[in-house]
Write a structure and sequence with these properties.
This protein is an alpha+beta fold and 371 residues long. Helices cover 22% and strands 24% of the residues. It is built from nine helices and 17 strands. Helix 7 crosses helix 8. The two termini are 25 Å apart. The C terminus is likely disordered.
């Protein structure tokens, strides 16, 4: 989940986002100006109300716990669930610089200048419970996929490349059947990473320490040793400190829904491999297991053994359908229709109507074109 190098020191930009989590004598405190999204619009807009460009209006990053849409390239999203309390900022590379009144969008655009990464996710906060065993980050889809010999070879080549740069890496193409689905003795199609090694940055702040600014460049001495899993490089997870974390990749472009920049493999649209399913991002630990690396890597991640802490979904209405993305869109349509009835007017907003029209006519074009 890396592949990012600086192109030029001249391109370094010290970007910060408004309303960082404030530090205090007892640790993390949410600033007054940063609230969870209460009524997110279906289409992100600039401060002037114009629809944003660059494909972000079609990208849906959903916090599944509360079925809330996290605004891409916007202000940090407050999270307070059973596992984590803090904030989350998803940032995506876009082609064109946003208009002047899109302050957060322009700041994000400049942040990516001089970097190869296609996205970056930053988190800052405290754990509310200490995970038992290794904490995993998994990217998964819900249903097994039917792929040919060539596609399977491509996927295995991708996974082999990922394994070379990630000490704790596990994957499955999925093995759910009608029989094993009853007791959860199956794996969903997924790739999973040991979180402490997968994170590009993992900064630990003791209570009272000055916290890094979410949205800015994060500095972590010893990051390479930790990512290699060197002994003593990571003290383990606890509930007392504040974690500032970042993960990024140069190989996945969610805005265009493509895998790219892999050595020897030409870029391809993800729906060629996975169909029209959205991507789920899940944080979990497994039930009791040994500490041996071989067991951690080879052991199946059966659904019945997962202790899921947090769940997000990434969908793109040009390429995906169904899932929590669709649930969110449907809910927005119902709420807007209800608002129209209360006002005595029935038309749907142009933004919601456009998304609704696209979802009804969604066709997996890559499958029609072939590989």
């Amino acid at each position: 989940m890396t592949g990012d190098n600086k192109i030029s020191e001249k391109s370094r930009i010290d970007n910060t986002f408004p309303d960082p989590i404030s530090e205090g004598p007892n640790g993390i405190e949410s600033s007054g100006g940063d609230k969870s999204i209460q009524n997110p619009s279906v289409t992100p807009t600039t401060t002037s109300g114009r629809s944003s460009k660059n494909g972000l209006e079609e990208l849906f990053f959903t916090y599944v716990t509360n079925l809330e849409r996290v605004s891409p390239n916007g202000r940090a999203f407050s999270v307070d669930d059973n596992f984590f309390q803090g904030k989350f900022l998803p940032m995506f590379r876009v082609l064109d610089e946003p208009p002047e009144d899109d302050v957060e969008g322009r700041r994000t655009y400049r942040y990516f200048q001089g970097k190869k990464r296609m996205f970056e996710f930053q988190f800052q906060g405290r754990l509310k419970q200490r995970p038992e065993g290794k904490l995993w980050l998994s990217v998964e889809i819900d249903r097994p996929i039917k792929i040919g010999v060539f596609q399977r070879a491509i996927l295995k080549a991708c996974c082999s490349f990922i394994r070379r740069t990630n000490k704790y890496f596990h994957y499955s193409f999925g093995d759910e059947t009608e029989e094993n689905s009853r007791n959860g003795s199956y794996e969903k199609p997924h790739v999973a990473f040991g979180l402490e090694c997968a994170l590009e940055r993992l900064i630990i702040s003791e209570p009272g320490d000055l916290l890094p600014v979410v949205g800015g460049k994060l500095h972590e001495p010893g990051a390479k040793r930790r990512r290699r899993g060197a002994p003593g490089s990571f003290p383990g997870w606890n509930t007392e400190v504040t974690y500032t974390m970042a993960i990024w990749s140069a190989y996945v472009d969610f805005v265009t829904w493509r895998i790219l920049n892999l050595p020897g493999i030409r870029p391809f649209v993800m729906s060629k491999m996975f169909g029209t399913q959205p991507m789920n991002v899940v944080y979990y630990s497994l039930g009791s297991s040994s500490d041996a690396d071989s067991d951690l890597i080879e052991r199946p991640h059966l659904r019945k053994d997962l202790n899921i802490f947090s769940h997000y979904e990434i969908g793109n209405v040009r390429h995906t359908e169904g899932g929590n993305t669709q649930r969110y869109i449907d809910l927005q349509e119902v709420e807007q229709a209800a608002a129209g009835i209360r006002k005595g007017a029935f038309p749907m907003s142009p933004e919601v109507d456009a998304v609704s029209h696209r979802k009804q006519n969604l066709i997996s074009i890559p499958f029609l074109c072939g590989w």
